[in-house]
């Protein structure tokens, strides 16, 4: 196993969460990468900032191709998000909330903040939410509860996931054994995304207010 040989040679953790992800990708190849990233969507405490660079590292070691890694990780993201969308659509808000409350390390307030963000920003929350921790997983639940157009949901989820995944997979691929240097940059990038979302929202509100003022003056 090429990836496991690299682990044994140093540079990649062989225990804990990262070690488990290495074992999964080493055993199942691209399917392992897809499952690992899918778990990030279904179970948010599994951090994609660790899993994605590892997938890039695995590609650099010849475990699978870089293109395959990008496709597999994005597919995993979309399938994971789709499962939560289905959960919200089938069970509704209250029962979904009851299930959510039983997930370790998550709080009801996490769901409520995500729900409020979706209610306020709609489709934009789905796209940008793929690049924000916790939100990228939970945003699918209120989308399902509100029965958002499924084709639109899948399109925005795919695009947002592809952008996020590509950044970390490609970086992990280029860094090789120094893949773990990616993680400290994740927080900075996430803050940049949040700032971009705020700019978009402020701009949208400013345009609407200007339109309302024009309508009042016209009347």
What is the strand content? under 5%
Distance between the termini: 74 Å
Give the radius of gyration: 19 Å
Please trace the helix and strand order, writing H or E for each element. HHHHHHHHHHH
Low-pLDDT stretches: 4-11
Structural class: mainly alpha
Largest β sheet strand count, sense and barrel closure: none
> What is the 3D shape?
globular
Number of helices: 11
- Domain tally: 1
Q: Assign a percent range to the helix content.
A: over 70%
Tally of DSSP β-strands: 0
Mean pLDDT: 76
Can you describe this structure?
The chain is mainly α. The protein has one domain. The chain is 79% helix and 0% strand.
Question: In short, what is this structure?
Answer:
The protein has 219 residues and is an all-alpha fold.
Q: SSE layout and pairings?
A:
Blueprint: H1 2-8, H2 16-28, H3 30-42, H4 48-60, H5 66-100, H6 108-121, H7 123-129, H8 135-138, H9 140-145, H10 150-175, H11 183-218
Helix pairs in contact: 1-2, 2-3, 2-4, 3-4, 3-5, 4-5, 4-10, 5-10, 6-7, 7-10
């Amino acid at each position: 196993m090429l990836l496991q040989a690299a682990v044994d040679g140093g540079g990649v953790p062989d225990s804990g969460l990262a070690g488990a992800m290495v074992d999964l990708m080493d055993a199942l190849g691209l399917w392992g990468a897809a499952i690992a990233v899918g778990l990030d969507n279904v179970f948010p405490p599994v951090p994609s900032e660790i899993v994605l660079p590892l997938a890039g590292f695995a590609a650099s070691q010849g475990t699978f191709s870089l293109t395959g890694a990008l496709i597999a990780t994005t597919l995993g993201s979309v399938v994971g998000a789709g499962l939560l969308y289905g959960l919200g659509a089938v069970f509704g808000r209250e029962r979904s909330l009851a299930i959510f409350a039983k997930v370790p390390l998550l709080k009801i307030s996490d769901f409520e903040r995500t729900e409020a963000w979706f209610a306020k920003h709609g489709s934009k929350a789905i796209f940008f939410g793929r690049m924000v921790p916790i939100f990228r997983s939970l945003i699918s639940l209120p989308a399902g509860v509100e029965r958002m157009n499924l084709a639109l949901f899948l399109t925005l989820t795919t695009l947002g996931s592809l952008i996020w995944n590509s950044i970390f997979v490609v970086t992990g691929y280029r860094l090789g054994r120094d893949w773990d240097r990616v993680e400290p940059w994740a927080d900075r990038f996430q803050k940049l995304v949040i700032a971009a979302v705020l700019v978009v929202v402020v701009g949208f509100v400013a345009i609407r207010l200007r339109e309302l003022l024009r309508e009042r003056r016209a009347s």
